[in-house]
Amino acid sequence: MLAIQGPNDMRERTSKPASLEALTGIRFVAASMVFLYHYGASFAGRIGAPQPIVNILSRGYLGVSLFFILSGFILTYSYMQRAQRTGWVYEFEVARFARIYPVYALALLIALPLSAPNLTFGDALRVLSMTQAWTTPSSDLGYAWIMQAWTLSIELVFYLLFPFLIGRVCRMRLRSVVASIAICWLVMFLFGTPSVTPYTPGFHSAVAELSVSSPIPIPAWRLFEFVLGMLMCRLMVSSRVSLQKYSGLAPTLTIIGLILFILAVGSGDRSLAIAMILTSVLLVLLALGDNAVVMALSSKVMVTLGGASYALYLLQWPVREYIRLLHRPALEQILNPVVALAVSLLVFHYWEGPLRIALIGAYRRLTRPAVEVRIT
């Protein structure tokens, strides 16, 4: 049971802890959305696929928004208790570095021969320090070296702010949590924040007008999704019993159906923001539920693919570009997803996992108190 120390409204508990395996599985869904956005949407259009299908694939970039909300949700769930211990911040930051940088560095190394001709020294420094997307939406600096890596630059801001946010979120009373969720939803809807990416200066008129007099960097806009994930987790933990009855198969399928409907027929950043607002609700249902959808996402296959989703997300572009060297378009269409997935699984099992364990182990050895030896 995830025990939480705090206000009275956080004491509602059940004997069964929420399982997050389904949220691991949905990471693969998010990575696949981005993959299909880059390499499936145009193909679907060329072969004359139904327009709703093309629309859904064309909105696959919203998988990034799913990642951001999911990140806030899972980190909050994982650190609610640990954040009460002394020295946890150092452990958290080391764990985050060990989680993301080894694959990040490998992806940059693999992509270097492809990116080197257009890579400046300044670009390289920004990418290596993961600050390339700390710009306004009008800048394209975030796309340097590996296009998809701009989102890791945003995640770094989340990781730096998380130690300051987690304590405040845990201390909030339930009514404040609900009010804060509503504020995040409102900002996401009004400004279409899930569509804020590098080099989208006119993605929404409201943001464009606001940015003229006061340029607002991308991390500030996308922070609302991360905080929303934190708040939704806090709501789930504090109101688990009352929310459990809404986590059945019918409500879960209804939310999924609404999301797909909006992606298929919606237009404009605001309508797409509604889809991501619904996604934040879906995460709570998946974390609490025990139905066919949850079972499918929690299967061994989906959990494994979810583990490899980070590598798939980062390596999709270099894999595709190397396959293009074959100059066989028909073969490329077949090989690209197969090779990308195979490479991601290999990286997950033989690079990401072992290096994460090694880096965290090295940190613990370095910070372990020295054993006093007494001679008697």
Helix content: over 70%
Query: SSE string, helix = H, strand = E?
Result: HHHHHHHHHHHHHHHHH
* Contiguous uncertain segments of 5+ residues: 1-18, 370-376
Straight-line distance between termini:
46 Å
Question: Can you put this structure into words, describing what you see?
Answer:
The chain is mainly alpha-helical. The protein has one domain (8-363). 71% of the residues lie in helices and 0% in strands. The chain contains 17 helices and no strands. It has helices spanning 21-39, 41-46, 51-58, 63-79, 88-115, 121-128, 150-171, 174-191, 205-213, 218-238, 240-244, 249-265, 269-288, 292-297, 300-307, 309-323, 329-367. Helix 4 (63-79) crosses helix 10 (218-238) and helix 4 (63-79) runs parallel beside helix 13. The chain is globular and about 60 Å long. It starts with 20 loop residues before the first helix and ends in a 9-residue tail after the last helix.
What labels would you give this structure?
376 residues, disordered C terminus, mainly alpha, 17 helices, globular, single chain, disordered N terminus
Task: Annotate the secondary structure layout.
Layout: H1 21-39, H2 41-46, H3 51-58, H4 63-79, H5 88-115, H6 121-128, H7 150-171, H8 174-191, H9 205-213, H10 218-238, H11 240-244, H12 249-265, H13 269-288, H14 292-297, H15 300-307, H16 309-323, H17 329-367
Outline:
71% of the residues lie in helices and 0% in strands.
